Amino acid sequence: MTELxxxxxxxxxxxGYKDLLKISYQTLTDEDKKLIRKAFDIAVEAHxxxxxxxxxxxxxxxxxxxxxxxxxxGLDASAIAAALLHDVVEDTxxxxxxxxxxxxxxxxxxxxGLTKIAHLKKDADISQQAxxxxxxxxxxxxxxxxxxxxxxxxxxxxxxxxxxxxxxxVKIASETLYIYAPIAHRLGLYNIKTELEDLGLKYxxxxxxxxxxxxxxxxxxxQDQFIADxxxxxxxxxxxxxxxxxxxxxxxxxxSIRRKMLKQNVTxxxxxxxxxxxxxxxxxxxxxxFLAWKIYSIVTDHFRxxxxxxxxxxxxxxxxxxxxxxxxxxGPDGRWVEVQIRSERMxxxxxxxxxxxxxxxxxxxxDGLDVWLxxxxxxxxxxxxxxxxxxxxxxxxxxxxxxxxxxxxxxxKSLPKGATPLDFAFSIHTEVGLKTxxxxxxxxxVPLSHELSSGDQVDIxxxxxxxxTKNWLDYATTxxxxxxxxxxxxxxxxDLALEGKAVLNRKLRSLKIPLDEKSINQxxxxxxxxxSHDLFYRVGLGTIDxxxxxxxxxxxxxxxxxxxxxxxxxxxxxxDIHKEEVTxxxxxxxxxxxxxxxxxxxxxCCSPLPGDSVFGFVTVTEGIKVHxxxxxxxxxxxxxxxxxxxxxxxxDSSQQEYRADVILTGIDxxxxxxxxxxxxxxxxxxxxxxxxxxxxxxxxxxxxTVVVPHKNMLVKLMENLNKLNGIDKVTRV
Length: 733
Hints:
The strands form five sheets. The protein has a five-stranded mixed β-sheet with strand order 1-2-5-4-3. The chain has a five-stranded mixed β-sheet with strand order 11-15-13-14-12. The protein has a four-stranded antiparallel β-sheet with strand order 17-18-16-19, with helices on one face. It contains 30 helices and 19 strands. It is α+β, with helices and mostly antiparallel strands. The chain is globular and about 100 Å long. Helix 10 (about 165-185) packs antiparallel against helix 11 (about 190-205). Helix content is about 50%, strand content about 15%. It comes from Nonlabens arenilitoris. Belongs to the relA/spoT family. It holds the Pfam family ACT_4. One of its GO terms (cellular component) is plasma membrane. This is RelA/SpoT family protein.
């Protein structure tokens, strides 16, 4: 570089520092300015020899990240300093101890969190990436500013990716859409989320991005005219009320227009709400709500509102802290347009999210973000599931729209759209969730799979004897509920496995076979299982019965047969022998709520595999075709032929439950029905679906429908019922 170029670069670096102080959203004290100056000087010195791929001095990257943190997110001086230093420990001679000595514990902790994230493997596959994501979220326990600065870092990297090779651009953009945009959304950083999504689309689907962006540019003049016409109609009425306000248009992001085009299967021109009109008014805190509804009244005096599309986020703010009134009205030229009404304070919270929310937070009121962080910590602490399951469930909750329901005492609870009474029960307390027997919604008994709506009052009925069943995972939608149910089921499996181990020990002893590592290993191989826990669990459940154990014993006595079988099947030592897991063999596909077995074939357009999330589509000539949920044709089929869609899921046939009808006859006496139901409920893994008793001149007849995992369980149950005093006969229909 020439002397002139170096001089010019130094000028730009110095200007960067001045800009940083000028644009900060927070009011900076002299102490704050000294702290930022010190961090700036050390970052400049540490990164002095480094250059980015584009040839630019590396220091411009930390400065840009600090600017995003200061202006767009509005964090404090400590965060601005940490943003300037975020790559120092990772890329230069400075150590974490140096940072702590120079800047104290808080900034050192934030930089340490950012360094840990930087150390995560970059060229990871999807499962490794999911594991990294889980580790990254653990940094939230330290300081939420870690994740916010990381989002700012990612935003600047996305803005400056042009000089990277294509494959790296696609990888970083995909990771951004997969991880960073959802977190930005959840932290209320809507502007940054939008930019991350648009940039993600720009590099993953450049042609699509460019087409939509071009179409937005071409329609800009038309949009500006529309907003001018809209404003001119309501201006006079708003001014008469003495309101101070601005009216602006906000075009929808490229990414959200793309999502709408895919979801509704329409072209760009057919997307009807490509932009929103935003009315931002000035008000003190006390009058905000009153003025917002006054503006609502004026707007709806002039334009016909769509009653279904009213969103009142002022009375019940989103859990991100977002507040506004959203109404959809018929605009000047017969087009629906969304109108967002918010005060300047609400606007700042919508723009800055976390920082503005805390600036305006009053007293000790519980904050939506705090609640979310507590729930997240809960999920992380109980994360027994695979990393991919964890990420998918976490993302599901990040992006979900909210509903508001009431407790019996009238307290308001926020839940994701699509939540069920089971989700509500777990949101109150884990113990309430685990003991849930039923629910009343607005005074009426409803099944646990019932979808809640905003405004519902939910009352949970609990029972000390209730335990979660596998079906609950079909009813629960929130990550918290699913996590707790999986945990409880796992504990049940452990108990049953211990019982199974004792049973197996007895049965093998009678066959003169010791229960040791060698025999366990052989049995795991023989029954084509993966772990000893699988073996004990299936013995406890009864899916591996006496007959099957004898088959194993016979194979063992035939040394040649055993030798060949072991050679073919698995190595002698099974490394998974002590693992605690129950393997799901996705070997059967069932359809509908009743889990029916029907004939089907796989569609060629998406080629599903066992275990994939799928649905059935009833064709005219070829019967049921099975498609993946994310099949390219799924949206089209679901929108045009919803009546032909069948829900479908993979199950492990060895763990499937079956219905059986049992008839009891005998001499009637007091308390007999109670004893019958007690015997059934004491048999683990047996549920009663229907029960009816009739008595005629001292003789009774009972008809019971039970759900059992296999025949052995039913035989055992019938034997136990037969032992009851007064029962004459127990038969299966």
